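RECORD TYPE: inverse folding
INPUT: structure tokens
STRUCTURE:
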């Protein structure tokens, strides 16, 4: 090798090392106290970057931007229907450093509250009053909370089911005991690459995080890239209002998550795995760390490196390219596609990104066969973790055949509270459907046929006491708050729609006498066509669907579907 060639390679190596060092920036900002005086300068000095870049990152993420606010009350739709406004008012009356937040992935235990970075379930106004103004004294009096010896202080889990179900009918089995034998991983090592991908294809596994994209296509694409350095990334930044299954899965079956990641790394020839968890998932993080230790001590993941990264409070980082930007230590703004992460992902390398539930399905597919997994579904392959909250007796996470109806899901959850009026089949992003769709299969294809989506299967049930303008407004507030602001259609459109509904509720018309909602359909179209990522593309759906199916709530003549 010539001196010049060696120098060029050395320069490239140093440059890449410095670029990757940038990924430490959010963690260092957290350690420095967030956006406090001097933190940006300190972190810039430590990472070799600019103070402006450090400040830009700190100001983007809510947990870093407002570190003095130690109490955050979720005022998402499910929490508001369970009394979150009263809890927030009690916190303010007690003089606590408090603000409202959009979602804590705890809709099943509403009202949920974040204490520093620990999520507390079923917090009451009395719990807030009992603090006497000292946020560190806040505890939940919910019977599901139990003291813990770990550094987090509390441990709790939500409700799951169907309790006592035959494990042979389940893809994951939340009630099952943790298993560190590595049966699925052993099977993966026995198979040739093609046989492995054929088994995955035969299973019919679709991504469980939102789009329902066939998993085997992504795996083959990453494995087939000419670039030899590849990564596997776990998307555990669960933030869709109405969704909390991944939290529960990491708490109850961390073994499946880590084994699934190890299988994925073997399949795409990666030696490094990144786990990106939302910052509020402190206890789930501890459970995953325990699972990694178990597999490592058994010598089952030798040569594989796991890195856990905490999110800093940004719903948009659930979008896969925004997540990659966050992992690289930047503001979590979605990238233009193509290229897709399977080609150009983390630090420009081919990257396989999957949701927690998707990865957790993989060990069973390998251990028991793709046909076994596929047969568990009804209208589409596999069993599915459905979240349900709102006006039902027993909100929780229920593993049922993919394609059950709302009525079947609610029956397992103890029944309806009141008379069904509407439901969100896939969280805020799915919009609203009327009671007449209660027998429609909750799957990817059937819901797409009516302009909705299964998404992450965060089902929110609303009874006939709910004014759909109010429900719509809650979802629009969420999207306005969580827009990253990168593209104008989303940045301006989310605010416009929320303000339009606010004016409509107040009975205010536009200056020309038109309804406040006169131009919202045009704005929705512009957002759908002009936004970079899914947030902007679907942010208008709560409004457009509510007006379509519940015109009477908006004072529109005609009948809802």
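DESIGNED SEQUENCE:
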């Amino acid at each position: 090798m010539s001196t010049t060639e060696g120098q060029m390679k050395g320069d490239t190596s140093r440059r890449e090392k410095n670029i990757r060092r940038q990924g430490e920036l959010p963690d260092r900002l957290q350690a420095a106290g967030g956006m406090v005086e001097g933190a940006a300068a300190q972190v810039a000095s430590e990472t070799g970057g600019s103070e402006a870049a450090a400040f830009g990152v700190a100001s983007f993420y809510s947990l870093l931007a407002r570190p003095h606010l130690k109490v955050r009350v979720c005022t998402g739709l499910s929490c508001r229907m369970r009394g979150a406004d009263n809890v927030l008012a009690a916190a303010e009356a007690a003089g606590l450093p408090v603000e409202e937040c959009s979602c804590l992935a705890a809709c099943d235990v509403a009202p949920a509250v974040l204490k520093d970075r620990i999520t507390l379930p079923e917090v009451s106004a009395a719990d807030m009053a009992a603090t006497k103004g000292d946020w560190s004294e806040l505890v939940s009096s919910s019977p599901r909370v139990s003291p813990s010896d770990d550094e987090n202080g509390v441990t709790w889990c939500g409700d799951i089911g169907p309790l006592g179900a035959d494990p042979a009918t389940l893809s994951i089995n939340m009630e099952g005991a943790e298993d560190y034998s590595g049966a699925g991983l052993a099977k993966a090592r026995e198979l040739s690459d093609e046989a492995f991908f054929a088994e995955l294809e035969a299973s019919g596994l679709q991504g469980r995080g939102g789009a329902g994209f066939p998993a085997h296509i992504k795996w083959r694409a990453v494995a087939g890239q000419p670039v030899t350095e590849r990564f596997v990334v776990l998307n555990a930044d669960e933030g869709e209002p109405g969704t909390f299954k991944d939290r529960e899965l990491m708490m109850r079956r961390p073994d499946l998550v880590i084994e699934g990641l190890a299988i994925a790394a073997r399949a795409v020839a990666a030696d490094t795995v990144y786990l990106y968890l939302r910052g509020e998932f402190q206890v789930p993080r501890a459970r995953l760390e325990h699972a990694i230790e178990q597999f490592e001590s058994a010598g089952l993941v030798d040569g594989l490196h796991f890195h856990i990264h905490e999110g800093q409070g940004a719903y948009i980082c659930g979008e896969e390219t925004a997540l990659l930007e966050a992992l690289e230590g930047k503001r979590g703004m979605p990238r233009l596609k193509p290229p897709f992460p399977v080609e150009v992902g983390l630090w420009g390398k081919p990257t396989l990104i999957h949701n927690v539930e998707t990865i957790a399905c993989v060990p069973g597919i390998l251990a028991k066969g793709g046909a076994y997994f596929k047969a568990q579904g009804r209208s589409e392959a596999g069993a599915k973790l459905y979240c349900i909250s709102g006006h039902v007796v027993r909100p929780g996470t229920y593993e049922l055949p993919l394609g059950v109806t709302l009525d079947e899901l609610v029956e397992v959850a103890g029944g309806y509270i009141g008379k069904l009026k509407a439901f969100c089949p896939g969280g805020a992003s799915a919009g609203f459907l009327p009671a007449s769709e209660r027998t429609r299969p909750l799957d990817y294809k059937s819901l797409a046929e009516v302009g909705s989506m299964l998404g992450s299967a965060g089902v929110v049930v609303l009874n006939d006491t709910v004014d759909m303008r109010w429900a719509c407004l809650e979802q629009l507030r969420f999207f306005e708050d969580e827009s990253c602001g990168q593209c104008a259609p989303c940045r301006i459109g989310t605010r416009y729609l929320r303000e339009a509904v606010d004016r409509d509720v107040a009975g205010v018309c536009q200056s020309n006498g038109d309804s406040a909602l006169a131009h919202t359909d045009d704005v929705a179209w512009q957002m759908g066509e002009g936004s970079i990522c899914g947030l902007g593309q679907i942010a208008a759906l709560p409004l457009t669907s509510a007006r379509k199916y519940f015109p009477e709530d908006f004072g529109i003549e005609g009948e809802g579907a």
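NOTES: Residues 383-463 form a domain with the Ubiquitin-like (UB roll) fold (CATH 3.10.20.600).
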